[in-house]
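Justification of computing resources. Each target in the renewal requires a structure prediction run like the one illustrated here; the chain below, 67 residues long, is used simply to show the kind of job we budget for.
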Amino acid sequence: MNLTSHFTVEGFTVQQLFDLVRTSALPYDQLIQEFDAWVHVSFGPRNRRQALIFTKNAQNKTVSRAA
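Resulting structure tokens:
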């Protein structure tokens, strides 16, 4: 079973939260900084610690890159 949450925390930027989780020992499966709007984190049996950043390109299409 996978568990997922999207979140922000008052007093922290999305970048700060993303970096905090990414550099922690938290055993997440996937961590995504989504459009500077929120952080997505999921936990599951694999816990791959995959970290991605989602942005929009000039054509307004979602693109991702490894963090």
